[in-house]
């Protein structure tokens, strides 16, 4: 499975730099760019952990082998399925799409033979990008942790969510 996500134009992060600065009791603008970068990074890590789409996005889901005739789309809250192709053929009108905010796409058939480079199923859809209050609080906590410990890293270090932030987010995980 391959998933590519792009933010829908005009989308904003679920937490603003102003909210983070208020949470951290920061009253200067020197670190605004850094804070905005941390916000985006923490949101991406939280989305990976929870399986939620926290900002409106367009998602392209591609499965090239061993896929079922029913595909449950990742990253709910789903808005609309805009395209379905199978082996390069447009089959959107032949699919049955169920679910309101967690969509399942039932394919009309599955090919048995491999053809060309685009063998498989590709589904393009959009998400609403909702962020529950508990997730927003976990994001603020994680952003604060990373911001406050930013000087305690070494070259090549990777910022990670703290155990506390992970514990807060796990209750929102989509299985």
Properties at a glance:
single chain; alpha+beta; 2 domains; 4 helices; 23% strand
User: Termini, distance in Å?
Assistant: 16 Å
Strand order of the largest sheet: 1-2-8-4-5
Q: What is the percentage of strand-forming residues?
A: 15-25%
N-to-C series of helices and strands: EHHEEEEEEEHH
Average pLDDT confidence is 89
Percentage of residues assigned to helices: 25-40%
Largest sheet: 5 strands, antiparallel
Number of helices: 4
Using only C-alpha atoms, the radius of gyration works out to 19 Å
Number of strands: 8
Which structural class do the helices and strands define? alpha+beta
List low-confidence stretches. none
Query: Globular, elongated, flat, extended or rod-shaped: what is the shape?
Result: elongated
Number of domains: 2
Give an account of the 3D structure.
By secondary structure, the protein is of the alpha+beta class. The chain has 2 domains: 2-54 and 133-170, no CATH class; 57-127, no CATH class. 29% of the residues lie in helices and 23% in strands. The chain has 4 helices and 8 strands, in the order βααβββββββαα. The strands form 2 sheets. Strands 1-2-8-4-5 form a 5-stranded antiparallel β-sheet, with no helix packed on it. Strands 3-7-6 form a 3-stranded antiparallel β-sheet, with no helix packed on it. Strand 4 and strand 5 form a beta hairpin. Helix 2 (32-50) crosses helix 3 (133-148) and helix 3 (133-148) runs antiparallel to helix 4. The chain is elongated. The two termini are 16 Å apart.
